[in-house]
Amino acid sequence: MDRISRVVFVLTGTFISMMVLIITYQVASRFLLNRTPRWSEEFTIVLMLYTGFLGASVAYRERLHIGIKVFLQMMSPVMRNRVYFLIDAVVGVFAVFMTIWGAGFSWMMRNQTLPATKIKVGVSYLPIPIAGVILVLFVIEKIGTDIIERRAGAQGPVILPGKE
Fold first, then answer.
1. Angstrom distance (rounded) from CA 138 to CA 114
2. Residue 46 and residue 68: Cα distance in Å, rounded?
3. H/E element, 95
4. Span 16-74, pLDDT tens digits
5. Helix or strand or coil: residue 120?
6. Quick one: CA torsion of 89, 93, 98, 101, rounded to 10 degrees?
7. 91: closest CA among 79, 103, 83?
8. Contact between residue 149 and residue 143 where contact means Cβ atoms under 8 Å apart
9. Model confidence over 112-147: pLDDT tens digits?
10. Taking the complete model, does pTM exceed 0.90, yes or no?
11. Within 10 Å of residue 120's Cβ, how many Cβ atoms?
């Protein structure tokens, strides 16, 4: 899971860098050359889709998703464990939904193309099922890790400042 997380992290960082370069080129060419490349906006949007969905899966694994620390800190360790399990279960169901419906939607759109880049529209929807599969793996990892830690006597996930 660490490798998957690292690969996704590097990919999203690369995609963000590419978006910055493309948008810089787009703005510079608009002002200096008085023309805008037709492909730049579409390609940047596709990169943004991949960055958003894949980045969200890594954010979930690192427990960087939206959480309300005050309420979690007020809970007993047992209740906190239940809340984390509920969160993981809901994310898992959502991830399965993303995988199944995202794959179906990508397949349905496989023959359409974006006008400027000629990228298949199905490719622009692929980050949904890909992120869904990655999220399912991360959910299984989180639930498994929490169970193993509880059996070893841990009180549940620790809430660190700036981490939850």
1. 32
2. 32
3. helix 77-108
4. 999 999 999 999 999 999 898 989 999 999 999 999 999 999 988 887 766 667 777 78
5. strand
6. 180
7. 83
8. no
9. 999 989 999 999 999 999 999 999 999 999 999 888
10. no
11. 16
